[in-house]
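On clarity, I found the account of how folds are encoded harder to follow than it need be. For illustration, here is how one protein appears when written out as sequence plus structure tokens:

:::
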Amino acid sequence: MKPPADRLRFVASEEVQSALKSLPAALRTQACRLVVVLEDHPSEELIDDGIEPDTLGLFVGDAWQDGDNSAAPLPPQIILYVESLWAYAEENEATYRVEVRRTYLHELGHYLGLDEDDLELRGLE
């Protein structure tokens, strides 16, 4: 049984905060600069742009090493898709918590300039 969307967002927020607290202080400072947005699924616009409908999370904006002089229309942010994460976790709250944390750290890695190979080496594929 699927919990209400508010519950999925609450649990996701808890996991993001827990992940933040577990980071080393210097890394936590950088991570706290990021906005984390919780949405149900990728928008139709994103899907039309090639994002898979079951995407778990997405980093958008300029990476940290690109500096604050960006002309990007949005600040760097992580988007977590709570309905997609819930489905991926096979509707198990403990698994959902693990996947929210893992997805958040994966997208944070992109903000910090890591590519998919770097993330895989860290167990965040």
The helical segments are 5-22, 25-31, 44-48, 82-88, 93-111, 116-121. The radius of gyration is 14 Å. Residues 42 and 53 are 6 Å apart (CA to CA). The chain has one domain: 5-66+73-121.
